[in-house]
Amino acid sequence: MKKIFEVGNLKSNGHYALATVHGDTVYVSGQFAIDPESREKKFGPIEEETLQALKNVEAILEAAGSTKEQVVRMNLYIPDVKLWDKVDAVYKEFFGEHKPARTVIPTNELHFGFKIEVDAIAYI
């Protein structure tokens, strides 16, 4: 089993790996809108946070030998179901014709005050 703890300046901040590779499957831990170069938390409109979180997942997948087109499952956590349509629009543009299985989970609040957290499962 391979564990990825850093991708560029993206690093895990706790007792977890950014991703774990087991066999031909990549499990990406939850990602927020954190700038991969400066490590700055990028709070902003839900559309911007969603795109940055998805780009972080993409960078981690590439480090593991996978791509966003190989994602089979996504979980998206948002603090308010009213944000769903805005998140879905960014998600659709990001993935294009690829449609992985997905769950959008409304929560009360997310760590640090982010508006979205995403995790992924992909194949290599």
UniProtKB/TrEMBL annotation:
One Gene Ontology term of the molecular function aspect: hydrolase activity
Protein name: RidA family protein
Keyword tags: Hydrolase
Enzyme class: hydrolase
Protein's UniProt keywords contain Hydrolase: yes
Pfam family, one: Ribonuc_L-PSP
Organism: Salinicoccus bachuensis
Entry EC number(s): 3.5.-.-
Transmembrane segments: none
The family this protein is said to belong to: Belongs to the RutC family.
PANTHER family: 2-IMINOBUTANOATE/2-IMINOPROPANOATE DEAMINASE RIDA (PTHR11803), PROTEIN HMF1-RELATED (PTHR11803:SF58)
